[in-house]
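Re-run with default settings, no changes from the original entry. Doing this only to confirm the output is reproducible before filing.
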Amino acid sequence: MDRHVRYDSSSDILTVKVQKIPCTVTDVFTSHPIKSILDMTLHKHTGALIQFNITGLKSNFDDDPPDSLRYNADEDTLHIWLDVVNDDGSGMCDLVYCDHMKNILITLNRNRVGNLTGIEIVGIGKLLETSIDISKN
C-alpha cells in the first residue's frame, strides 16, 4: 500500500495519501467537508478514503478557524471533526502514520460502526517544518 505524508510550505497544503489511487480517475470523487480547508478523495464504489488535503494550516492557526478545526498548542495536536455529534471518542481509529523519532502521529477517527468522524494529527508543528515521505520508510 502506497502511503505518504507531504507538506508543501509554498502552497501551505498538507497532503496525506492513505492508499493507492485507483487506475482510473472515474473511480474516485472529491468531497469538501470543510470548505477551503479540507478536501477528501474517496473511492466511488467502496467509499474508502484515498487521500486528504488540508489547506492553509499556518494561516488557520492565526485566524478564527471553524468549530470543526481545533489546534491544541500545549499538545501540538490538530483535531478535525467531520461529525461532531458522533465523534465522542468512544470509537476506534485507523493509524495512518507514526514517526516515533519525531513524535508525529496521524489517525482517522471512527465511530462505533466504522464511519469516519475525524482526523487527528499529533506533532503538527514538527510536521509543518519538514517534508515527510513515509513510503521511503
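The longest strand covers residues 92-99. The chain has one domain: 4-136.
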